[in-house]
Amino acid sequence: MQTNEYQALAMRTAKMFPTLHANLDHAALGIGSETGELAETIAGNWMELSDSQGVVNIGEECGDGCWYAALASDTMGWKFEDLLITDQMVVRDMSFGLHKASQTASPAALQLMLTAFSGEILTIVKGFQVYNKTPDADKFKKHLSLYVTTLAYMAEVHGLLFADVLDANIEKLRKRFPDKYSDADALARADKA
User: Fold this and answer.
1) CB atoms within 10 A of CB 142
2) What's the domain range around 135?
């Protein structure tokens, strides 16, 4: 799947709320929780010395993180496809730490960067929600872009194509939500049966 196809398919399964606040909260909480789940999966995979199921789980967590990034992007009126940075020099200029982490191909270094970017996203949304501070759209988009780009690097380091990660995420969501989002389908989790 190409990144330009992903957002519309992902948003078919989004529970949308009536306010910008609620949708950004949903996206930020998801980004934070998926970052933690990915860290747990990477740690488990490392301790198991890279078993194949661990790699599949890493791909699934990367896809889930992308879903929440697509939700944030959609909420802000951006295109998910514009978040992925493919030019290494642009990555270096935006985040030298991510540039170095991608060069070393270290899952631990990439996870640290992912944690940093998700923390920045959570800080921006917290300011909006708690202090009624208008989000700095450029800063928010920058950190969301770095987050998605890190997910793509993480997939690559584990031998996964980013397009396949996006495909698998949409396929999982098609099983979970055959028509569109519903609370009942979310609780039933047909894809886990």
Assistant:
1) 17
2) 3-192
